[in-house]
Design a protein that fits this description.
The complex is a heterodimer of chains A (about 325) and B (about 350). With about 325 residues, chain A is an alpha/beta fold. Helices cover about 35% and strands about 25% of the residues of chain A. Helix content of chain B is about 75%, strand content about 0%. The relative contact order of chain B is 0.16. Classes of the chains: A alpha/beta (about 325), B mainly alpha (about 350).
């Protein structure tokens, strides 16, 4: 791995101009580096300025102060065409030119390299085909954008960024409109890309769980402008993660890396069992407002045989969690 | 390696298909051109017409005069209009990413009309019915300049507003309102002008392909050729703008420069044509859609020549209909283009439920 940063921000303040004189600074001064082979996830609540940071790093929006450098050159002073050879982007939201074919969109990624007429040389065609193979979209190269699902269309936009052949790729909420399997496959793809091509990839996302699992580094931007970065695990352990997403009504459980979104009903209960049934029973109990504790008086026993699972509670046997919960509700008088 | 082979094969195939269609359209254009010259209030045998076109000679001097000085200039004007307006419409549809954008709908034509009104209504000296014809070369420069400036002014206004308004439908409504305001300004001006000047202006608004001849034709052809050249040279930029200005910018397009080039080209095309032929409607909005449908592509390197060829054939056809073959009357060209163009616009809206997928 190369030790010089592919993108480097020094004393960067981000924000926007309010009217002619006033300016609102969202965060900063920040010192950021993006290294080769890194997948960085930018996390933060709505309105913290994730998009502003991303757009500022990409040179699409003026910075309040500080510098952003790529390859030793100040990004604000680069010509758009030179900038496009160093940094490519995937923006949030779907492109609305539905009549374009997949291959022609990806070919547009060669814009900074082709002549005035946009004619593709053999090298350009090779790069376009490599981008399509890497993102596994070769099979629908001739389809129209309007015929694609959200997941497919996001992959097409990523392939276009790959065809642009830049050391840095920045994605603004690429998983926003995708279903879970598509989110996971996109994150896996980005992770692999960073490792195999040595590109440095930055993405903003609201998928905290996926981000914690796949990112090499997490950038955390809080609503009050406080910025933290580090390995995802460090960020969780030192409490910054919890602090950034703190809101009345739910807490982040460091022990199993999930958000707890339920109010307690004050009762506690003990569960005996193992494996998946134990895990999901606990989840169901938490949802109902119980605290699962080993010192509780009442106990639920889970008995697993080869082809079925039984829950024993107060000498009654239940074959489903739904049945168990019904019995609990009757006893504790919760709805 | 399989992918490489099949992919370049399909690409080659689509290019070949496009060329075949372009050649076919060119043949259609030639037929329409000859037919347009052949028909008129004076009937001239087809053989004599071909003789006059090829050798410039005929036994009947009146026929030579009619063909050389009336019909050929008119047909060439139809070609110029048929190239210029669709291409300016295509550029506007891409720039605004709005399938209903065109010079007449978004008020660009009205802006050109304001420029024309400026010359026609403010100078007291012009009082003949065919004012533009009588203007001579210096006058036509003036009227073309003011029309292009008027078109450019409205275009800038529209672009400035579109930077703030991202919604296609709202933008369209604003465009229509701007056109209304411009027409109101012209109306107020007309109200305070002498009847003769108002009449000149009214006749101009009907639209006519027959008012351009001699040096004016060269001038118009030159300006439109320049506009088309700029448009064709910016086809790569237009392609990139299909993904939206933000994406275009991340891919290395200098968006403001591209906007200036596109606005410049559109204003030249729509402004100069409107100055000489009046506000010819519907060709600008309808032809780009016909071209996209026929060629099944969004590639401007194909669409621009396709728009020229299809627009030309359509304009010639409209002109043929406008002459009401067999009669001595000629209808204003604007009436015919609206008759032919409006159904196309309705068809576009009906066929594509989602206008966003038009590009």
């Amino acid at each position: 791995m190369n030790n010089t940063a592919l993108l480097k921000a020094s004393r960067l303040c981000i924000g926007y101009k309010k009217g002619k004189k006033e300016a609102k600074t969202l965060a900063g001064p920040l010192d950021l580096e993006m290294y080769s082979g890194q997948l960085i996830c930018l996390l933060g609540p709505n309105g913290a300025g994730k998009s502003t940071l991303i757009r500022t790093l990409a040179g699409l929006q003026p910075m309040m102060s500080g510098t952003v450098e790529t390859g030793g050159k100040n990004i604000a002073k680069l010509k758009p065409q030179e900038r496009a050879k160093r940094l490519s982007m995937v923006l949030t939201g779907r492109v609305q030119s539905g009549n374009l074919t997949v291959s022609s969109i990806i070919a547009l990624g060669r814009f900074p390299y082709t002549n005035w007429f946009g004619a593709l040389e053999p090298d350009d065609i090779k790069m376009v085909q490599w981008a399509m193979r890497t993102t596994d979209i070769t099979s629908f190269a001739d389809r129209k954008l309007s015929e694609l699902s959200d997941g497919e269309s996001q992959k097409v936009m990523l392939a276009r960024a790959l065809a642009q052949d830049t050391p840095v790729i920045i994605l603004d909420e690429p998983t926003a409109h995708l279903d879970l399997p598509n989110r996971i496959s996109l994150m896996r793809l980005l992770h692999q890309l960073a490792k195999t091509t040595g590109k440095s990839i930055l993405l903003s996302t609201h998928d905290l769980d996926l981000a914690l699992q796949s990112a090499d580094e997490v950038w955390l931007l809080r609503n009050d402008g406080v910025f933290t970065k580090g390995a995802p695990e460090d960020i969780v352990l030192d409490g910054s993660f919890e602090a950034a997403f703190y809101k009345e009504g739910f807490t982040f459980d460091k022990n199993n890396g999930t958000f707890i979104i339920h109010h307690s009903n004050g009762a506690s209960i003990q569960v005996e069992g193992e494996g998946a049934p134990l895990f999901w029973t606990k989840r169901a109990l938490l949802r109902e407002g119980f605290t699962v504790s080993e010192s509780a008086e009442e106990c639920i026993q889970i008995i697993q045989t080869e082809n079925n699972v039984q829950w024993i509670y107060r000498n009654e046997s239940h074959t489903t969690i739904a049945g168990l919960l019904l019995s609990l509700r009757n006893r504790y008088g919760v709805q | 390696m399989m992918n490489v082979a099949t992919h370049s094969a399909t690409q080659k195939h689509t290019w070949t298909a496009s060329y075949t269609k372009l050649v076919g359209l060119f043949m259609l254009l030639l037929i329409a051109f000859i037919t347009d010259i052949a028909l008129g209030s004076v009937s001239i045998p087809l053989r004599s017409i071909l003789d006059i076109i090829v050798s410039g000679k005929s036994t009947n001097d009146a026929w030579v005069y009619i063909i050389d000085n009336i019909r050929i200039p008119k047909a060439i004007t139809a070609v110029i209009v048929g190239c210029g307006l669709p291409v300016s419409g295509l550029q506007m549809q891409t720039l605004f990413r709005n399938p209903l954008a065109s010079p007449d709908i978004l008020g660009i034509t009205a802006g050109a009309g304001l420029g024309v009104a400026l010359v026609m209504l403010s100078t007291g000296s012009i009082t003949t019915a065919y004012a533009i014809k009588e203007l001579g070369i210096s006058g036509s420069w003036l009227i073309m300049l003011t029309a292009s400036l008027g078109a450019g002014f409205i275009m800038f206004l529209i672009v400035a507003i579109s930077a703030r308004v991202r919604d296609n439908v709202i933008m369209l409504i604003i465009g229509v309102m701007i056109a209304n305001i411009t027409f109101s300004v012209i109306s107020i001006w007309q109200y305070f002008s002498a009847p003769e000047q108002v009449k000149d202006y009214l006749i101009w608004t009907f639209g006519s392909l027959g008012g351009v001849s001699g040096n004016q034709l060269y001038l118009l052809a030159g300006v439109v050729a320049l506009g088309l050249l700029i448009a064709f040279a910016s086809s790569k930029m237009l392609d990139t703008l299909l993904l939206g200005e933000h994406y275009a910018s991340t891919m290395g397009l200098t968006v403001n420069r591209a906007r200036l080039l596109i606005i410049g080209s559109t204003s030249l095309l729509a402004g100069s044509i409107t100055a000489f032929c009046g506000p010819v409607g519907f060709i600008g909005v309808a032809v780009p859609h016909l071209a996209r449908t026929l060629f099944n592509t969004s590639d401007h390197r194909v669409l621009i020549p396709a728009c020229c060829l299809m627009g030309t054939s359509l304009m010639l056809l409209c002109d043929i209909i406008a002459q009401l073959p067999g009669s001595n009357d000629v209808l204003p060209i604007n009436v015919i283009t609206a008759l032919v163009g409006s159904p196309v616009v309705i068809w576009i809206i009906m066929r594509r439920n989602n206008l966003k997928n038009s590009f």
